[in-house]
Structures are given as structure tokens and as C-alpha cells.
Specification:
Blueprint (H helix, E strand, L loop, with lengths): L2 E6 L6 E2 L1 H14 L7 H4 L7 H11 L6 H17 L6 E2 L3 H10 L3 E5 L4 H10 L8 E3 L1 H4 L6 H11 L1 E10 L2 H10 L3 E4 L15 E3 L7 H11 L2
Parallel strand pairs: 1-4, 1-6, 4-5, 6-7, 7-8
Antiparallel strand pairs: 2-3
Helix pairs in contact: 1-4, 3-4, 8-9
Amino acid sequence: MAKPIVVFDLDGTLVDTAPDLLDSLNHTLVAGGMAKVDDTAFRRFVGQGGKIMIERAYLAQQRQLAAAEHERLHDAFLEHYTLNIPGRSQPYPGVIAAMDRLAAAGYTLAICTNKYESLARNLIQGLGLSDRFAAITGPETFGIRKPDPRHLTETIALAGGDVARAVMVGDSVTDIDTAKAAGIPVVAVDFGYTDRHVREFEPSAIISHYDELTLDLAQKLIDAASR
């Protein structure tokens, strides 16, 4: 029988990557003759990817952004970010202990992210966490991305987990919509990268610290989903 599984989003859920993504954004903007962004104001856009961050920065500074320039800047952003992984990125408080609890109880762990798989793997390896995950998938892994539910269900299959005994953990409407479409309960963290509180997206549960991701919570969500 396949094991129960917990699938994590990455940026803003498992790891706080905002410091490095914002560093790469500001490096790219300055190189292009733009002003740096306010890190606090732009944290909410971090989970949307480099292209959106660049687009928002130009919009905030009332500058036009041609398609060719957008692509060039995005390439520069990715180059800077790739060369500096893992930088200042760190797992969120309590997440290591939570993964230890789940693994000790027989749960498989996986990552399903819209970050490029190659970057996700480099980050997780740089943080010394690679051996904890049975699968790490990005948009290029299957040629699909969240909120397509197949990104999640295919990740579970690749990890050898059981879709009927699965829980997703995420920080955004994209994660929540993905899990709902797949018929999988979803725990939303309220400390991630979103401009609206996760309660508005009606996840199965909300946590403010990984101490709250207990075995009891995971089992209750799985039991409720199977009724």
C-alpha cells in the first residue's frame, strides 16, 4: 500500500526565499537603470515569479516594459538568482521538526512548486534537505503547472504516495485552488507571499507556525476528505 504523503509548495511555504529573490530583482533593476524596490512592499509578489516581479517594478515606477526587454531582464534575474543559491534563504521556523514528525510517522514528503525544478533542486540541495523528499517537481517536470491539479497528482504519483491519503501545504490561492481541484485537503500557512489573507481562499486549515502541523491535524484532514 502506498504511504500517506504531505506535499509542500516551496517559496513562501517551506523556505523563505524572499531575501534572495528580492536581491536578484534589485540587481536586475539597477543594472537596467531602474531604482530598487521596497523589499517590504514587494514581498507579496515574490511567489508569482521573476517575470511578474519585474513587471510590477516597472509598473510601480511608471515605466514602459517592452516584451524583448522583459525577456532580457528575466534572463538576467534568473542568472543572478541561480549563481547565488541558496544565499540567505532559510526553512521557516519549525519546518524541520514538522518534517521529522511526519517522516517518523510514515509519511512521504514531496515538493510541488511553480519554481523551475532545477532551481528548486539546487535550493533544497544547498540547504541540505534533498534526502527528505521523494519527489521535487516544477512546471517543466510534467509540462504543466499549478493550479492545474495534475501537477499535484502527478507529483504524488512520482513520489509513490497515495492521492487518497494526501495533504498539500501552501501559501497562496494557487496552491489552495490546485489542491481543491485535485480533491486533496490543503493546509495554508499565513506567513507566505500573498497580498490577501489565506482565509479568503477557504483552505482546509490554516497554520501560523509549523508547530501546528501535527500528525493529528494531517490525519483529521485525510479522514475528512475520505468521507
